[in-house]
Design a protein that fits this description.
The protein has 18 helices and 18 strands. With 480 residues, it is α/β, with parallel strands linked by helices. The protein binds flavin-adenine dinucleotide.
Length: 480
């Protein structure tokens, strides 16, 4: 439901359709590869108002709202922004989103809200993502948003994992009046917002501002606590928690099976590489504090967003030749086009239909080259994606002193193994009986985010956490 229905607005839609499109302003390539700061130049209030005035206010429900997994009321926000009512616009996002300042930056807008904007058929879409980030930044400076607290219910809920799913569940439970404790295996909260997504996409200061809101709302935080090893889910119930939410993500790097040389110095897994190059020392787990030595010639193996993040990080660390090796073609790449475009602008090269088969050490014992084989596209697999097939006798060598494996992620099976009656599937993904509630096979245990779906998006994990919070609230009230 739009707060400000487009049908009632007296606007000249033809005039809006014919307005010229101006894309986002980016820092120059030379400047941005010299640091890890945000790539996009923020809007001025005047630019934000002008951008929002491109919205033609489609009838309710608008395509952008439907395409947003959180169903943000984007048209109403656009109307308020157009009039300079930025704090009110920020309030519109708070109604449906726990992490609007983050989603405004990291969502693949071109595939979601912005991609569905009817203005794509004319000059270009309304820049909804950047406008969301703008109003939240404006609100942070000019107003003081606090997570509203509900009337105390007397219930305590344990949340395992402080990523987008766990955070969203926590934020909603606070509003329902429940006490929340988040158990997190790492030293800091944030999940992949801190220990994955690089600063040039999501400045850590934005995360720090967000986390302060949770602390101010009274969330209890237990860092460095690995549930399934340090304590079990059963222990949490014994300690008096009435319900448990599992939001542990899917963060185990996929391995490169049957490929000799992955243990050679200079070959890194993507998570290890990104964490050790992007996160400040004090927030690093003890086993990740040693600095990574990145060479001049870097190859990144994989085709997702993580691969783009690794390419762009290597370029910022001074590597001169940074190449992505991918076994299919660009058409089959799962990663977002926007990140790939930025990586290319910054100097990344792509080698398609290329599969590494061996990592080769030089005389100093460190990586010197990657032996590869050419691939061709064969028949489609079960998902309709054409399978890569090796071309016989097509081996060739790529000189490289650093290789980063960005091959995807698997769930950690530990909670399935240590929690009686908790059903899992596919190497440890948690089975939920109903995705609209996140209820698992174990009464009182709910789950959502990447540990249920496999690797996905910040916004989808956040939505799952919010839905589970509503179901936990219902469960606790019915249990009384
Ligand atoms: C490099 C990279 C870049 C990405 N870029 C984007 C992007 O630009 N846009 C986008 O929308 N998505 C992006 N994603 C995906 C997105 O980050 C995830 O989909 C999202 O973070 C999932 O949220 P989550 O809460 O389910 O899990 P996570 O963010 O993974 O959080 C899970 C948390 O649980 C903790 N944990 C795990 N096991 C335990 C345990 N047993 N006990 C206690 N704590 C535990 C973990 O330490 C972690 O803090 C990216 C992912 C990666 C890897």
């Amino acid at each position: 439901m739009q707060a400000i229905p487009g049908e009632l607005l007296t606007i000249d839609r033809r005039d809006r359709v014919n307005k010229p499109f101006n894309d986002l302003d980016l820092r120059s390539v030379a400047e941005r590869i010299g640091d890890f700061e945000d790539v996009i130049l923020p809007f001025s209030p005047e630019r934000a108002m002008a951008e929002a005035s491109h919205c033609i206010h489609c009838p309710d429900p608008a395509a952008c709202t439907l395409a947003c997994p959180a169903h943000n009321d984007i048209p109403s926000a656009m109307w308020l922004i157009e009039q300079g009512r930025f704090v009110e616009a920020a309030e519109i996002y708070h109604k449906t989103s726990t992490l609007p300042e983050i989603c405004g930056r990291v969502c693949p807008h071109e595939a979601l809200c912005q991609g569905s904007c009817v203005q794509n058929k004319k000059a270009g879409p309304v820049l909804t993502g950047e406008l969301e980030a703008f109003v939240l930044d404006y609100e942070y400076i000019n107003s003081h948003y606090a997570i509203p607290k509900g009337r105390p219910s007397g219930n305590r809920v344990a949340i395992i994992g402080a990523g987008p799913a766990g955070l969203a569940c926590a934020e909603q439970l606070i509003q329902y009046g429940h006490e929340v404790t988040i158990f997190e295996s790492k030293p800091s909260a944030g999940g992949l917002l801190v220990y994955g997504i690089p600063n040039f996409k999501l400045p850590k200061k934005v995360w720090n501002q967000k986390w302060a809101q949770f602390i101010n709302a009274g969330v209890q935080f237990k860092p460095n606590t690995y549930i399934g090893k340090d304590e079990s889910v059963d222990d949490l119930f014994t300690h008096g928690y009435s319900a448990v939410f599992i939001g542990v993500g899917s963060e185990i790097d996929a391995k490169m099976e049957n490929t000799p040389g992955t243990d050679i110095p200079g070959v890194y897994e993507a998570t290890d590489f990104l964490i050790r190059t992007n996160v400040e020392q004090s927030l690093l787990p003890a086993n990740m504090r040693e600095r990574i030595e990145v060479g001049k010639r870097v190859v990144v193996i994989g085709g997702g967003d993580t691969a783009s993040d690794c390419l762009r990080t290597a370029l910022r660390l001074g590597s001169e030749e940074v190449t992505c090796l991918y076994r299919r073609t660009e058409k089959e790449m799962p990663g977002g086009k926007k990140d790939r475009k930025l990586a290319r602008q910054e100097g990344a090269k792509y080698k398609w239909l290329t599969q590494p088969v061996k990592f080769i050490a030089g005389p100093d014992g460190r990586l010197a080259a990657v032996e590869c084989i050419e691939m061709r596209l064969g028949d489609p697999d079960a998902k309709g994606r054409r399978k890569p097939v090796p071309v016989p006798d097509s081996n060739f060598s790529v000189a490289a002193d650093t290789a980063i494996l960005a091959l995807g992620y698997w769930p950690d099976p530990v909670l399935g193994k240590t929690t009686p009656d908790l059903e899992t599937h596919d190497w440890g993904l948690i089975t939920v009986k109903d995705s609209s509630t996140g209820a698992t096979s174990r009464p009182g245990v709910f789950s959502g985010g990447d540990c249920v779906t496999g690797p996905d998006l910040v916004v989808t994990a956040m939505v799952a956490g919010r839905k589970a919070a509503a179901a936990i609230d219902k469960y606790l009230r019915e249990k009384r």
